DNA sequence: TTGTAGGCGTTATCAC
DNA sequence: GTGATAACGCCTACAA
């Protein structure tokens, strides 16, 4: 077992100084061709690579991005990671992940762990618990120590940092408009409680779409699911709530659900009640997961371009990292809004 | 913007030496209560945290695990990551990810990047291209530099390292046995080309199950899909191949597919051909993804316990890292086999 | 009880 | 053209 070779070892072997070796390897003009050749050959032979950790210490720059997400077993988040990773690698950065598991304390601990020198900046999406508690001190502290943060998807306006968000409002609005255009008269909304910002915005989109078409929102057409900390939704419970919705409102001919699972459950319940999709009820979901694509009937859905969000977030962060020259010069933060697309499949006409 | 505080700064502020501060913070008996109090209070006030990078350099230990997977937008792999992360964090490690994207060169580059001091060891699953090329030099080189590797799921016997694998053979065997017990007489297999080790083993399980029940495998019941480097399978192509299978073999009453997507496609094609599931054809898939659970009918499948694999892999790796005391003493490697479970749902009787 | 010095691996500056 | 030295932040053996 040969340990990784260092400059010091090369220097000893070739009987030159460490700094000569260092310079030779960086092809410095100061060093004679002869020495350079010798050193470079030797380095190649032993497959020398500078130690990242030493470089990080010296440069006070790790070239590593920390990404904190609530959950990784989730298409949206894993696609975002893929986007981040893609851009990061292209620009010479590594990605280190932390999972908050939707928990406030895990989010804090994880950020703490990484903030102590392991990374140069964060890309993150806020956990549900944090959103509920509205305790954002860890974000502000991190930033006040000069570590930039880019938030995506689940963000809050209180925090001043770069953000990448989905155009939830218009995504939802367009989806509901589509249902209206398709002659739906009684459109149900299946959404989450309001503290999840995206749920709130999608709900708003639903309301605005109705309004624009002079339709009056009816409270009994709106179902708000409480999936608080419990990201593993209880399917039975969910379906029974949806069943209540359908039963207490027999005229429902359209459903807009703020995520894939709610939409699928709605389809399942509808079928169970003898309704045909899309002839009796048309359904649209939100998110670009696998379920939508492979369900029967396949689900019309609002695509969020998750990977693109990740790419954009990574670019924003790295731009900021590499422009630290002008330090706290222009403290201007951007919010990039990613447009959605409606992907039409079999669940709508 | 206040930069992170260091020992040096604390020392200067309190007018003591750096080592005094260091010792005081570690509650050394050498230091007077007085000084300790003073230092600790100051450190707390300024929220001092030792710099990870400096520690890594000093200890030649990063407390970071590198994980290289072919693809992150994939339930199996993201569950594995979740398992790794869980154990790693509990044991004081961070996780850094690299995506090979099923490409040999990206696998090599990513490992290279991380191996230069960024991490203490690897957990990885081999990319398809690497498996095809059978070029494993990068694994061996990494290990010969004293960096341990734990492989999971996609492994090769040529490489000597710890491994965590699914009991693919018996998983498949039990699935096919189930079909046989359920009176299927003509069981089709939808699998991948043989260079993917797991595909090969699952195929073998299928054959052994038939054999044990004195059923003769028929070549025209076996469909081998070529999903080479193209992890985004062409659905149309896939379905048309499966349709051929069904058409050229009208007696098929059972299907065992080596993954979720093949199974779902088989169900879709069967339905299209007017066959009822599970009455005319029973279907079993492999993997514990979301598709199986939410498809209609829901899919009976072989669960691999991906998260558990991740946990096990992390434990193996960290055990090895923390037992480096006896260095290359006992060069014994373990292969942990994770048993599968058959999750019965609606696609079988 | 406190401080000094050396080293982890690298690079930059400056002296020879 | 080459090498010694300092520094990044931390820890620790040893000296005072």
UniProtKB/TrEMBL annotation, chains A, B:
One of its GO terms (molecular function) is transcription cis-regulatory region binding. Transmembrane segments: none annotated. CDD domains: HTH_LacI (cd01392), PBP1_LacI_sugar_binding-like (cd06267). It comes from the Bacteria. InterPro entries: Cro/C1-type_HTH, HTH_LacI, LacI/GalR-like_sensor. SMART domains: HTH_LACI. The keyword Transcription applies. Keywords: DNA-binding, Transcription, Transcription regulation. Pfam families: LacI, Peripla_BP_3. Residues 5-59 form the HTH lacI-type domain. Residues 2-53 form the HTH cro/C1-type domain. This is LacI family DNA-binding transcriptional regulator. The lineage of its organism: Bacteria, Pseudomonadati, Bacteroidota, Flavobacteriia, Flavobacteriales.
